[in-house]
Amino acid sequence: MSYKLILTHDERRAIDWIGNRYATGDDFRSKLWKCYWRFPEMDNGIDNVIPGDFDEDWNLSKDIEFKIPENIAWEIRELFEQDELTFPCFSDELKSKLIEFYYNIVRGETI
Questions:
Q1: Which of 25, 59, 65, 80 has CB atoms 3.0–4.6 Å from 18's, for a disulfide?
Q2: Alpha carbon of 80 to those of 39, 57, 61, 86: distances in Å?
Q3: What is the mean pLDDT of residues 77-103?
């Protein structure tokens, strides 16, 4: 089982900006680094989830879709709970996206 999360370039920049101040910064990014990712606009109907150069891909101005295994999703859930689901310094849109992702994990709604 796995979960899906799509992050825009600006959302990834916000995660970088948080850095080590909150669990939703560097710690969150390091969990995503353990996952497979792809660029949704390159979807050709084939499961083309590939491991690539994470730092290089992370910094591209494209949306990235992360395919997150259940065990890593639960680790991410724990990170979100460390900050009590407040997602400090994130936009309302990103907060909403991450809260929805959190509840998908809690409910077991995988892709």
A1: 25
A2: 25, 24, 25, 8
A3: 96
State the pTM of this model. 0.86
3-state secondary structure of 59: coil
Tokens (6 digits) for 3: 């979960």
Please give the structure tokens belonging to residue 75.
Answer: 């680790």
- 37 three-state secondary structure: strand
Packed helices 70-82 and 92-107: angle between N→C axes, nearest 10 degrees: 130
C-beta of residue 94 within 8 angstroms of C-beta of residue 68: no
Beta strands in the chain (DSSP E): 2-7, 36-38, 64-69
What region, left, alpha or beta, does residue 45 occupy, with left being phi > 0 and alpha being psi -120 to 50 degrees? left
How many other C-beta atoms are found inside a 10 Å radius of the C-beta of residue 47?
9
pLDDT bin (cut points 50, 70, 90) of residue 109 is confident
> pLDDT tens digits, residue range 11-24?
999 999 999 999 99
